[in-house]
Design brief:
By secondary structure, the chain is of the alpha+beta class. It has five domains: 60 residues, Helix Hairpins (Orthogonal Bundle); 237 residues, 2-Layer Sandwich (D-amino Acid Aminotransferase, Chain A, domain 1); 106 residues, OB fold (Dihydrolipoamide Acetyltransferase, E2P) (Beta Barrel); 146 residues, DNA polymerase, domain 1, CATH 1.10.150; 69 residues, Rossmann fold, CATH 3.40.50.10190. It is 37% helix and 20% strand. A hairpin with a 2-residue loop joins strand 13 and strand 14. Helix 1 packs antiparallel against helix 2, helix 12 packs across helix 13 and helix 16 packs across helix 17. It starts with a helix and ends with a helix.
């Protein structure tokens, strides 16, 4: 390649790789497969090696990882968190071995699986976890301590009181947790994560640690970055020591004497790949002895004492026999490809996700096609591409009516999901009933998921209105329920009739409208009849409502099924007027914003107190904010309040305000 051609190609590769990197690390939205990215980066590196003056300051080959985007506090890494050079063939592993043995003739290696997750640093002082951060660009990461505390495998206190230790680990999402998350995202119409690593990164960088906690993340620790008070001489020794401290170390690490033994172990890990409960994208080969590592050193980009072997993704060709459409618990229509079964990544695959209509249309997937399939993250089978259309095939379109209830389906302009919005759709019944009875809904004590499931299975519940038409005899048919327990359920249902309009609206589960939106709606209109008669413009006029929320409310009440449900609830005596719950007006005209973790109460509990005392709990800070109630790990809201001069309250100060007569 001549210089001018190389110059143009290098710029094209830099632009593409920087775009792909930004989409992956900052936007949590990868647009290419890892292998394609790796091969493009390798091509750029080869050009820069041939023409060193083409190395630009923004070249992705000089980067270790993604950049911090300002959501979290920056954390400098005194010991650089290096990335590894990749190998894609056994010949490249042998070349690596020859380079190592030129300086360390008797080198021993440790071979370990390469977990596909997000690299983090964990710091401990006197055995206590004090800070956790992401790798970032290798020199500066992001402080995600609060989120890392939610990962149960991370010890908060070590088995020994080491003066100081910093370890490096890989946070990942187990395959089962990833599959559950993607299923839930598809059922709600959210864009699903593409692979476990993307899911782990997106989950760890949440502003709300409770969301991180719900994602069931895990970790393997694989390196000591810094340590005081303990002397260690090799990698295997350090991993053994980390285990004694209570860390969950990288599994199945093996020390070998020759490159042939290392390659044999790498092949063995590759054969086990499909059976592991976590995702790996390769295996890592590291020189064991620390003094030898110091002798070998590092380049500007990689350590010379380690290399990562990358396994190629397994793909197979098969025939798409049919498309099956299921209705999720939130009404989303989810298409699944029925395939001629094929052995893929260790299991027989006969079904593959098609995600949504956009996915199908972009790839022009049709029934009868010859298609290529693979497992996303080696877990969820998906159709990668169409190789050939069947004769006389036609483009596939999702049905215009719900397969469960026959109602017309809806696709909103800004969404990929097609959904059934009929509140009486049988496919959504159990989920709707669980929400209706939950604390955030009508708060009907005793009607948990198992009880509701049995009532549905026995044909006693077809809509939420049937909850108020149950009799003791029906309930007593459920195993474990006798006369007294049946009476308790009926009493709980009876009491819930007086909850008022806001609880009933929240129980409906209207899209985009949570408990707070239900309160605003009830307070503004006062009665169910007024809401049913309201226009989109009248609903949008509510302070705190937007156009999307208003349209969603209007569409919900325009459904024939909604009108029927409301009529039946009204006939059963359910209260459909707003209930005044304000105890006094001491906070009248005041707006509070809550941030961080409070010592003794949740933010939801604090918001309820504010509203009972006539105040308003808002979600964002502005010049109109009266106070900000700040707890531990308060973030950008606290900083903005300080900039605007908004008074800041601790929980203790807030409670004293509440106690004033």
């Amino acid at each position: 390649m001549d210089y001018e051609t190389a110059k143009l190609r290098a710029k094209e590769l830099r632009d593409r790789l920087n775009y792909y990197s930004r989409k992956y690390y900052v936007d949590d939205d990868p647009v290419v497969e890892d292998r394609e990215y790796d091969m493009l980066q390798r091509e750029l590196l080869e050009i820069e090696t041939q023409y060193p003056d083409l190395v630009a300051p923004d070249s992705p080959t000089a980067r270790v990882g993604g950049a911090a985007d300002g959501m979290f506090e920056p954390v400098p890494h005194p010991v650089r968190m290096e990335s590894l050079q990749d190998a894609f063939s056994e010949e490249e592993l042998c070349d690596f071995d020859r380079r190592v043995r030129e300086s360390v003739p008797a080198a021993q290696y440790v071979v370990e699986p390469k977990i596909d997750g997000l690299s983090v640093s964990l710091e401990y002082e006197n055995g206590v976890f004090v800070r956790g951060s992401t790798r970032g660009d290798g020199d500066v990461g992001e402080d995600v301590t609060a989120n890392l505390r939610t990962v149960r495998a991370i010890p908060l206190r070590l088995a020994e009181s080491v003066p100081y230790i910093e370890v490096r680990g890989e946070v990942y999402m187990p395959k089962a947790a990833f599959a559950d998350l993607v299923t839930a995202q598809e059922e709600t119409g959210d864009k699903p994560f593409k692979n476990p690593r993307n899911a782990a990164a997106g989950s760890l960088r949440q502003k709300n640690p409770q969301i991180t906690a719900s994602r069931k993340l895990d970790i393997f620790v694989f390196n000591i970055q810094r340590i005081e008070g303990v002397e260690l001489h090799g990698h295997r020794q350090s991993l053994d020591y980390l285990r004694t401290l209570g860390f969950r170390t990288i599994p199945d690490y093996v020390r070998v004497d020759t490159i042939e033994q290392a390659i044999g172990r790498i092949r063995e890990i590759g054969r086990l790949r499909g059976t592991l409960p976590y995702d790996i994208d390769g295996a890592v080969l590291k020189v064991d002895d620390f003094d030898s590592r110091t002798l070998l050193g590092s380049t500007a980009k990689y350590p010379k004492w380690a290399i990562a072997f990358k396994y190629p993704p397994e793909e197979k060709q098969t025939t798409l026999i049919d498309v099956e459409v299921a209705v999720g618990r939130t009404g989303v229509l989810t298409p699944t490809a029925i395939l001629d079964p094929v052995l893929l990544a260790g299991t027989t695959v006969g079904r593959a996700t098609l995600h949504n209509q956009d996915f199908i249309t972009e790839r022009d997937i049709r029934i009868g096609d010859t298609v290529t399939v693979r497992k996303a993250g080696d877990i969820i089978p998906e159709v990668v591409k169409v190789n050939a259309h069947a004769p006389d095939s036609v483009p596939y379109l999702l049905p215009q009516t719900c397969p469960s209830c026959g109602s017309d389906v809806l696709r909103e302009a800004d969404e990929a999901a097609v959904r059934c919005v009929n509140p009486e759709c049988p496919a959504q019944l159990l989920c709707n009933l669980i929400h209706f009875c939950s604390r955030g809904g009508m708060d009907i004590e005793g009607f948990g998921e198992s009880v509701l499931e049995k009532l549905v299975e026995n044909g006693f519940l077809h809509t939420a209105a049937d909850l108020y038409r149950l009799d003791a005899q029906s309930i007593q048919t459920i195993e474990g329920f006798r006369e007294k327990s049946a009476a308790n359920l009926l009493d709980a249902a009876e009491r819930s009739k007086e909850n008022g309009l806001e609880k009933l609206l929240a129980a409906f589960g209207i899209r985009h409208v949570g408990e707070k939106g239900a309160k605003l709606l009830a307070a503004h209109f006062g009665t169910m009849e007024a809401i049913q008669a309201a226009s989109v413009e009248e609903i949008a006029a509510i302070d705190g409502f937007g156009g999307v929320m208003a349209q969603s409310v209007y569409d919900f009440f325009a459904l024939p099924g909604t009108a029927d449900l409301i009529d039946r609830l009204r006939e059963s005596g359910v209260q459909m007027r707003a209930v005044q719950t304000v105890e006094d007006q001491r906070f009248a005209g005041l707006t509070f914003v809550l941030t961080g973790t409070l010592p003794t109460m949740t933010r939801a509990e604090a918001s309820q107190i504010i509203e009972r005392l006539g105040g308003k709990a808002a979600s964002s800070v502005s010049k109109k904010t009266s106070y900000i109630l700040a707890g531990e790990d308060a973030g950008s809201k606290l900083q903005k309040a300080q900039t605007l001069g908004v008074p800041i309250l601790t929980e203790a100060e807030f409670l004293r305000m509440c106690e004033q007569e």
